[in-house]
Structures are given as C-alpha cells and as structure tokens.
Amino acid sequence: MKLFTKKSKAVVGIDIGTHSIKLVELAGTKASPQVVAWAVVPLPVGAFSENAIANADLVADALNTAMLESGAKAEVAAVAVSSSHAITKVLGMPADIGELELEEQISIEALHFIPYPIDEVNLDFEVIGASESNDQENDVLLVACRRSIVDDYIDLVDTSTLELEYVDIDTYALERVYRSQNSLGAMSDQPVALFDIGSSSSHLMVMDDTRVLYSRHQNFGSSQLVKLIRKEYGVSAEEAEEILNSSQPPGDFLAAVQEPFVEMLRQEVSRALQFFYSSSSYSNIDSVVLSGACCALAGLSGDLEVKLRSKVSVLNPVANADVRTRRDTIAKVAPSLSVAYGLSLRGLS
Ligand SMILES: Nc1ncnc2c1ncn2[C@@H]1O[C@H](COP(=O)(O)OP(=O)(O)OP(=O)(O)O)[C@@H](O)[C@H]1O
Ligand SMILES: [Mg+2]
Known about the structure:
six-stranded mixed beta sheet; 16 strands; Nucleotidyltransferase, domain 5
C-alpha cells in the first residue's frame, strides 16, 4: 500500500461502490483542473458488498466497460479502500530520528492497536507535522488495512491495462476534494461537517481548516430512497432507479418520497453530529456539506437546510474544473464522482 507516495503523473481515479463504479481522469493542475475522462457504470447486485469486492469477475467487467466508455488515457490508477476497513491512529514519534528508525518504531507501535496478525495487514504512515503537545515529537498518521482487502484491489487493477500506484482511503479522497475548493483559512472558526451518502452506508467527517476532528461510519444510505419508491409505487428496484433518474418523476414524488427521505437524512445527520458534540468541546458547526449520488435530487440541500436549521450545501467535485468531455451529462452524476475525482487529484501538482 502506497498511501502517501508523491509523484505527479496523470492518474485514473477508480471508486468502486455497491451500486456502481465511478472513474475520473484529470489533467491540468490542482489550481486549474480539467476533467478529461469520466464514467459511471452500474454494478450487478452482489459484485461489491460490505464495502469490499465480493465478485472479482463482475467488478473487472464493469471496470473494463468504464475504461472504454470514458476513453481514459492515463496509465496509472488510484483506488480507495472504505474507511470502514481502515484503522488510523496519530502517534507521537521523536522528531530527531531517521526514516528507517521511524519505520521500525511504527511497526512496533502498530502491534499494540491492530487487532490482526501484523503480517495480514498493509501499513503506511505520513509525518503530519510537529506535535502540539510535545515539541520533541512529530505527529505521525498511521493507516492500516487488512491485506486481503487491498489484495483484491491490486488483483482487480491487474486485469486492466493500468498500473496501480495509489491505494487511498475514500474519506481522504473526499477531504482532498473539499479542501481543493475551500482554501485554508477561508473557513470559519466553526468546523464543517461533510456527510457522504453512499447507497448502503454514510460517513460523517467533521473538519476544521487543517484537520479532521471526527470521523464516523453509519448504516444509512440512499438505498432507503429506492425502498421508499418501491413501497410507494409498487415497482422493482430497477424501475425505482429509473424514477430517480427521470426528468419527470410522479406528481406526488416530493411529498411521498423526497420529504420522508429528507426526514430520515435529518435524523441521521443530527444523530451523527450529537456523537461528535459529545466527544468534543464543540457544540456547533458552520455548515453541513453533502456528497453522494442522491444529492442529484433537486432541492435536497434546501429541504434539509430547513429541517436542520443549519447551512447545507452539496459538494460538487467538478465545480472548479474545465470539463472537456460529455459536459452536458456530467451535472446529473457529479455529486457521485467526488471520491474518484479526489483520487485522480493525486496526479496533479
Ligand atoms: N439521479 C439520482 N437522484 C437521486 N438519487 C440517486 C440518483 N442516482 C442514484 N441515486 C441513488 O444513489 C444510489 C447510488 O449511490 P452511490 O453511487 O453513491 O453508491 P455507491 O458508491 O455505489 O455505494 P456505496 O459507496 O454505499 O458502496 C442509488 O442506489 C440511488 O439510491
Ligand atoms: Mg460510494
């Protein structure tokens, strides 16, 4: 696992989810990015489950389709492991030791908190900076993930023409997108809550202008939206997806589906924030930023804003980018591209 390698070569960001594979290739620079290739390809049920690759052949087929559909040209890939499978810890390490000694000490420290045999995990670390509590130490971020999960991604990329250069964590990719659009120091003195809604689960990340203060996974996803539609209109899952993507949803969609979904979302966001408040000295946030495919629902952020009584916006990864391909169709799926976009950002300088 090469979480923190710093090279700059165009990168195809590949985000695999329960519902679909998303792929983004960026060119240009961080300050002036261009989207040169992108695709969203649905995955069959059971291909990816519990945030891991479950049927390698089905996922490989979808990746192949995504590569062809997008016309991606880069030779290097970045993938993301779900934060639900990552163990992270910030360790204080003596500031005056060399790289090799640091590596050794970290491997020893890791034994204390990783609940698996050490030869079954991938470990990586990054020196974040001087420790606030001890001026002789640096804070070092350690990330560990079960080797079997990472190996499935390595095997997947092996089936393509790409070379796997980065294995990242999905929430780090999201954070990268958010920070690429919101420069340091521009945020208020209250933290921002980024709430990412996948189809099967969600993730809350609370950030100030330099750090992630809190991170939490929740079993709530936009599959609830599909459930509501199926119950309300007596349709199949496929038909429910068609309704979601149609430009003319049923007349009572807002009252019968969107309103109850937003109420569920309000409860989930409020609950997640309560956990954050009770574990920190904060009692307020600046705003909530939503991401995930369901943010394509017109009016979602406004509806939630009214219920939450807090500012709500949607993270649009391509907001500052020059979209060079299929510009007219990207808007509808843009909120679902954030992780893939954040992965591809690793190739820009
Ligand atoms: N146009 C749309 N409007 C609203 N909701 C949508 C739309 N398109 C898809 N969705 C919802 O988003 C879900 C897919 O979300 P997303 O692509 O974020 O999931 P995923 O990344 O594949 O899954 P996960 O990350 O949870 O494993 C669909 O099941 C559907 O409920
Ligand atoms: Mg996802």
